[in-house]
């Protein structure tokens, strides 16, 4: 879409250069409404993961590996400094 172009409400445009495809359907609106809460939840989860520092990421990875590869009765989380991990 070139600068200054105004797309009317209720239309779907696509491509480069953008071209009119079709009018928005009731199914489009229902889909957007039903998935908006799910997308908001996913965005919050993503933001939480992005704000982690290296130490937290290393700890999360260690816990994941322990849970994946060790028996439940063996799993022992540690408080090692992730900076010591090579």
Brief characterization of the structure:
The protein is mostly helical and 86 residues long.
Number of strands: 2
Rg, Å, rounded: 23 Å
Helix content: 40-55%
Strand order of the largest sheet: 1-2
Write down the overall geometry.
elongated
Spell the H/E element sequence. EEHH
Distance N to C terminus: 49 Å
Mean pLDDT: 86
**Main pleated sheet:** 2 strands, antiparallel
Strand content: 5-15%
What class would the helix/strand composition place it in?
Answer: mainly alpha
Number of helices: 2
Give the uncertain stretches in residue-range form.
Answer: none
Characteristic terms for this protein:
86 residues, mainly alpha, two-stranded antiparallel sheet, 2 strands, elongated
Describe the protein:
The protein starts with 10 loop residues before the first strand and ends in a 17-residue tail after the last helix. It has two helices and two strands. It has a two-stranded antiparallel sheet. The model has no long low-confidence stretch (mean pLDDT 86). A hairpin with a 4-residue loop joins strand 1 and strand 2. The protein is elongated. By secondary structure, the chain is mainly α.
